[in-house]
Amino acid sequence: MTTKTSELLAAARDRALPLVRALPDEAMDAPTPCAEYDVRNLLNHLFRVVVGFQALAAREEADFSVTPDRLTAYGDDWRVRFEKETELLVDAWAARAVPGADEGVAGSMNLPARTVGAMALLDLTVRAWDLARATGLPYTPDAEGLRALEELVAAMGPTARKTGVFAERVPVPAGASGFEALLAGTGRDPRWSRPVA
Fold first, then answer.
1. Rounded to whole angstroms, how far apart are CA atoms 16 and 13?
2. Fewest CB within a 10 Å sphere: which of 59, 106, 109, 120?
3. Do 156 and 40 meet the contact criterion of CB atoms below 8 Å apart?
């Protein structure tokens, strides 16, 4: 069974990249399951996460207070740049330094490094689903990563809801999958669909 954060992130990256490559340019203004984000803003948020958690893996601080408009800055190359940044994210968490990226604590939150890595995994997995739902593209999460995320959301969900990181839990529909239950735990409607034009 895979336990290294870098391996879980690599699997999540491999599921997210085909989706990101396929995103149509005309979808940038489309709404997403996160009411505060359209597709463009969600992509810029995901860039911020992918870059910031590289720093946290290296025991450096990350500034999450601003979200640069990387899509505009990178122009037509933003998809290539996103692919490179996700590679760097995986590499950062695969570092063989002592202690390893999965050991000790990381970041100003003083959380276990493995928990911090799981937070990056959560964003990369759930935000990919957000993008897929917003654009009608297919997406299936990595099963092993999903098991790690179920533990994270169960452990951190109450605090995340108090601090506004997660919205209030959404009722889980009858017959929901494990991934749909996870999404509901983060405050997403797992059956959300794009508004009809």
1. 5
2. 109
3. no
The pTM score is 0.93
Decide which of 164 and 139 is more confident. Answer: 139
Q: What is the mean pLDDT of residues 19-23?
A: 97
Higher pLDDT, 7 or 105: 7
Domain count, the chain: 1
pLDDT at residue 1 tops 50: no
> Which amino acid is present at 175?
G
Identify whether 66 is part of a domain.
Answer: yes
Paired tokens of 116: 């911090």
What sign results for the dihedral spanned by CA atoms 143, 54, 22, 36? positive
Residue 37: domain span: 5-143
Q: 105: helix, coil or strand?
A: strand
